[in-house]
Amino acid sequence: MSADPTLTLQQLAALVGGQLYFGGATPPPLEIRGVASVAEAAPDEVTFLGNLKYLPALRRSQAAAVLVAEDFAEQVTPVLIRVPNPSLAFARLVAHFAPPPVSFAPGIHPTAILGEGVQLGAGVSIQPFTVLEAGVSVGEGSVVGAHSYVGQGAKIGAGCLLHPRVTVEARCVVGNRVILHAGVVLGSDGFGFENDKGRHVKIPQVGIVQVDDDVEIGANSTVDRARFGRTWIGAGTKIDNLVQIAHNVVIGKHCLIVAQVGISGSTRLGEYVTLAGQVGVAGHLEIGDRVVVSAQSGVSKNLGPNALYMGSPAVPALEYREQVAHLRRLHKLAERVQRLEKPPA
Amino acid sequence: MSADPTLTLQQLAALVGGQLYFGGATPPPLEIRGVASVAEAAPDEVTFLGNLKYLPALRRSQAAAVLVAEDFAEQVTPVLIRVPNPSLAFARLVAHFAPPPVSFAPGIHPTAILGEGVQLGAGVSIQPFTVLEAGVSVGEGSVVGAHSYVGQGAKIGAGCLLHPRVTVEARCVVGNRVILHAGVVLGSDGFGFENDKGRHVKIPQVGIVQVDDDVEIGANSTVDRARFGRTWIGAGTKIDNLVQIAHNVVIGKHCLIVAQVGISGSTRLGEYVTLAGQVGVAGHLEIGDRVVVSAQSGVSKNLGPNALYMGSPAVPALEYREQVAHLRRLHKLAERVQRLEKPPA
Amino acid sequence: MSADPTLTLQQLAALVGGQLYFGGATPPPLEIRGVASVAEAAPDEVTFLGNLKYLPALRRSQAAAVLVAEDFAEQVTPVLIRVPNPSLAFARLVAHFAPPPVSFAPGIHPTAILGEGVQLGAGVSIQPFTVLEAGVSVGEGSVVGAHSYVGQGAKIGAGCLLHPRVTVEARCVVGNRVILHAGVVLGSDGFGFENDKGRHVKIPQVGIVQVDDDVEIGANSTVDRARFGRTWIGAGTKIDNLVQIAHNVVIGKHCLIVAQVGISGSTRLGEYVTLAGQVGVAGHLEIGDRVVVSAQSGVSKNLGPNALYMGSPAVPALEYREQVAHLRRLHKLAERVQRLEKPPA
Hints:
The structure is a homotrimer. In chain A, strand 39 and strand 40 form a beta hairpin. In chain A, the strands form six sheets. A twelve-stranded mixed β-sheet of chain A has the order 8-11-14-17-20-25-28-31-34-37-39-40, with helices on one face. A ten-stranded parallel β-sheet of chain A has the order 9-12-15-18-21-26-29-32-35-38, with no helix packed on it. A nine-stranded parallel β-sheet of chain A has the order 10-13-16-19-24-27-30-33-36, with no helix packed on it. Chain A has two domains: about 5-95, Udp-n-acetylmuramoylalanyl-d-glutamate--2,6- Diaminopimelate Ligase, Chain: A, domain 1; about 105-320, UDP N-Acetylglucosamine Acyltransferase, domain 1, CATH 2.160.10. Helix content of chain A is about 15%, strand content about 30%. The N and C termini of chain A lie far apart (about 70 Å). Chain A contains five helices and 40 strands.
């Protein structure tokens, strides 16, 4: 990471309200040019120790300085800067050294293609090679990234950021301050067929996708339109990369859906649900509020609220851990049975 | 969903051949503007009860009316419309209230870039910012969506719908009436390397992808070209979103491949195979006709035809269910062994 | 596959240094037009038998000729060509019959949009509808595919091939001879949020993605930018389709990451690591050099080097295989305990 706003150690300590510690010597005239993790830091970078498990790595670190807790008492090469909360202080330094965020000037790029009756709010930025079909609306201050496609009659709210190459198909509705990363597809057809004499005949998927305010959806994730009505992502929910949301799924507010999760048709999640990476959820289920499902689990039944579930099929965490423990002891159990069958003479 | 073609209750009942039931009172002068699921329905929408497990939700539903079976005898708020088959009748209403499908006018958008010798059938629609490289052909009535790319010499049949942002790489062959959703990639290189003194050297992937008639492939799914010959998707097969098909895979006719499935190189599926969500299949296997593999299973061996398989590694369903049942009783088995070892005095 | 450079059987045998075998008869005047697998071969194609398990398929094959080992002694329909190493000889034929690779002429397509200060090396090919934002550099001889987007200040090295529709977001750095397949996203935001009174507040992701020389990344795979510093893919590593690499992950040199793998934030892989299809790896882990993790496994702990791991949670292969074996015998163990409890009279 580039680091224009160079700091001396003294300036850096002042910025985070920390105490420099040199072990009695004169402070070296170091110039700090950036931030990095313990393992990655270069000799002109500052790092932090948020967890003592990284102490061995810190001993090998090339960092110029390290933010540590006030009671830190180990001998390490980097200059110590003692602060009440190293993680928090580090976040402040990350912000200091961050390059200015990329901004997109308001205006409609001359290559953009706008259909009839497109409505654009004040200050929108329509980037190169976008297609906004007839009847699309985009709210105040939103950015529609290069190569994005917004289908007939779709609505994008205010303050949204569509990264390059997003597809929002016809009639879908996106709220305010929504972030859609590159390659997201909203409104592809749900996977629904009827068998007619051995052929799979497509069931029309005439519903929409509705994405509420403050949702973020990760790169190359896909959300299918409803068979009828809507597939619905509740406000404040955050979805990671390569996630699949099937038709008529309803996700409540403030959920966290980690990468490569798949949720099958018509399943409903409550609020504050967390699905860890690669979880799969079967169709037509109800997942209660504040449920957490651990990575790679497979959910095949309704899950009650306020609990942690693990495994495939997913069961309450305690039950899963017991299963795993028993499984690991299984060879011993088999030996015990053998001894019972043939007791030593 | 918007609902232009408003219906009175009487019109609605007539449309589905059902009997209105008001419990003796005069029918309310309701105007029905759309269809929705039991949980989602607004006071001007009609819903249906396809399964009695949704009866509690129906009691809380705001729907104006509900399609029910002829023997339905519960007391609920929505007006009842009794029909022989509520699901079927509902499908008719979905079609009635559906917005007109988006259509793409025939013609070549002026921004499209066509290479030498491109052949276009009658009535094709080539959308904005498409690239058709030299020697491409597109059959009668097909739509090539915005931002799509069709590589050198690739062939697209008649009556196809390529949604926006589809990539069909060089020389691939797509049949008739094929639907490719946004972000599909056909013809990326197969994942093949030879180790040469510690470096992975690319094995040329010179084959193609062949997609036969009436196939549908979901958003952001990927199908690699063959090392030589072809990766082949048989007629009538339907593939969901985010599916990975490796090089030289052969999928028979009329299969269903659900979201996030991955099929490794050179594996061959028979006809009417169903792979449920997130299934993984190892390479160089044979999967028999009409095999069903349940969600998240991992297939590591050939599978005989006409059977259901579950688990990772996948085994016949009965064997899997016994394993799971035994696993759940494992703590009891351990207790029983303990009692045998130390019988109560 | 088309086969322009037709060969007679004699020419073909000469090309691979093999011995034609006709069982005493006159060689048929066959013209060989292409290569194919045993099952796929047409009557004018040559195939090979690399493994005796394909012998039954060879008996049903329509191939004109087959490359076999020198000691092959079975009776089959195709003409035999005996060679020391059938696989190697076949690779030579694949190369012979391969169509000329698609090439992209140097130059900047008139539709490409180049921001201020873009620097292009000699012989680059900038394809239609690409966007190169301000400050981008592209090294000598690289191809940037149609509809690709390269964000502000990003750097692409020399000799790279970006297939159509690749997204490299701002400030990311790509080395030399890197291949990025269609739909790849480099530099989407890492999935990081802090909970502030029940709302998930975005943690700025200000780092980059760094991809070193000779890396290949498959279609629709995603690599998130670091929270700070870099997400880093080491030289010579090959990544398959639909893979997710989270923020601050570090992948060593010469790894193989198979399709649909997901690696969570800040995990570090050593060199020559192989993760098979659909593997998931939790965050903040260390995976040693030359580790192999089998398909669908879930890694939840650090893994020592030079070993094979299996299962979810992943354990050493021997332990996993014992678990599976015990699990399969579990019903028998239960029966044995029952007999101990109630011995036959």
